[in-house]
Protein: Dihydrofolate reductase
Organism: Kribbella jiaozuonensis
Amino acid sequence: MSQVRVHNFSISLDGFGTGEGQALETPFGHAGERLHEWLIGTQFFHAGDQLAGGTLGADNAFAAQHNPGIGAEIMGAGKFGPPGWQDDPDWKGWWGPNPPYHTPTFVLTHRPRPSIEMEGGTTFHFLDATPTETLAQVREVIGDADIRIGGGATVVRDFLAEGLVDYMHVAVVPIVLGRGVRLWDGLESLEDTYNIEPVTTSSGTTHLTFTKKR
Amino acid sequence: MSQVRVHNFSISLDGFGTGEGQALETPFGHAGERLHEWLIGTQFFHAGDQLAGGTLGADNAFAAQHNPGIGAEIMGAGKFGPPGWQDDPDWKGWWGPNPPYHTPTFVLTHRPRPSIEMEGGTTFHFLDATPTETLAQVREVIGDADIRIGGGATVVRDFLAEGLVDYMHVAVVPIVLGRGVRLWDGLESLEDTYNIEPVTTSSGTTHLTFTKKR
Ligand SMILES: NC(=O)c1ccc[n+]([C@@H]2O[C@H](COP(=O)([O-])OP(=O)(O)OC[C@H]3O[C@@H](n4cnc5c(N)ncnc54)[C@H](OP(=O)(O)O)[C@@H]3O)[C@@H](O)[C@H]2O)c1
Ligand SMILES: NC(=O)c1ccc[n+]([C@@H]2O[C@H](COP(=O)([O-])OP(=O)(O)OC[C@H]3O[C@@H](n4cnc5c(N)ncnc54)[C@H](OP(=O)(O)O)[C@@H]3O)[C@@H](O)[C@H]2O)c1
């Protein structure tokens, strides 16, 4: 059976996956790019841009697990666009004509719209469905490949709370955001169902892997 | 000038320094001993009990910084006893006749009582004062030695919020408690005033050191 995986999900020490005040100019609110500096530095992040370079150390090893084996991404309405994107019929995501997904990408929203085919293999589908229903529908489309839960925090938390995530990689960044959307709420005793292994890299990032117990 | 230090302060991934339901039988509420297993395993924790042994690795290196240079501890009413201890005139703390402090120990409480001299150099003093006033009073008693803020989360947070802590060691344990008292609340942008360095040890504990920027 295909695995459900979370990768490169970045939070602050106090557990926020995004800051307060998400808007067109500030996709992560007051967090800015601080949650993702560890990722922006890696070669993985610059794939396709040979001149840009990037590190090949431990941060890159974690980052590069993002794509292999993945046949689809599921993301929340809050990741797809700024608050109110549903009122803009022309909104096609943050990522330009060739988004970095290159697979069918399912956007959970209470206001679904027709699918949008982008360049490079990404097609956005819009779904109003529970996490379990969503996985069933995605598996009908993609078959046996793995499914990535791409965030934001609300969607990752919902899939975790229903016990639907097989593997999760969280990157903890040493900043205190104070406000935003929390990842850990409602997930008491997650350690009962996952083996949790933390490791800190030289960028000061603590990578946590969650592997489901059998 | 004497330094104000926090040591061995243990929190869950979601930032709780104690669980819900603190009581005489459950000093850490539903957290039990899980926040402190890393510490209980160290030789530092078994000091004085030669037979007990204990590890001498990285966890012990962090743990053993607890006492050297310290002339006093400041703790909250919630660390000194279970809810309601103020109504028991015979309550002398959790630690028996010879508490592990061996210095003057100042308990912040809105219901102060006369000082209690214990064995082994610990004397409990009870204070109703702001963090700044408290430090001034403690320095009058102990002079130039360093002062440890012993917890719980409420008291550590209050001293941090007023910018009074010079050094802090926090141990993050890979469990999700879900409820209790949070350390990080109200401490947005702590990284602006501290250099924060995380390192993970083989016990799965991530030790964070906070060193005040100059
Ligand atoms: N830290 C990271 O690594 C990371 C990763 C990805 C994204 N982000 C950031 O996280 C933020 C978004 O996170 P978020 O937690 O605010 O939002 P989110 O998880 O992206 O989306 C939540 C929203 O999706 C819709 N939705 C979720 N489940 C649904 C369901 N079962 N059925 C129908 N609709 C559903 C709802 O929106 P409606 O009710 O409006 O339809 C809900 O409010 C953005 O700032 C993004 O940039 C961070
Ligand atoms: N995780 C760790 O490493 C660690 C370390 C130590 C303790 N703990 C645990 O943490 C828990 C206690 O933490 P907590 O956050 O609940 O409480 P706490 O920080 O120990 O104490 C807070 C209480 O102290 C009194 N207080 C604080 N500041 C004061 C001031 N300026 N003036 C007068 N009174 C003041 C108030 O009590 P009143 O209003 O009742 O007087 C306040 O409610 C216990 O379960 C303990 O076992 C954990």
Q: What stands out?
A: The first helix of chain B runs from residue 37 to 40. DSSP finds five helices and eleven strands in chain B.
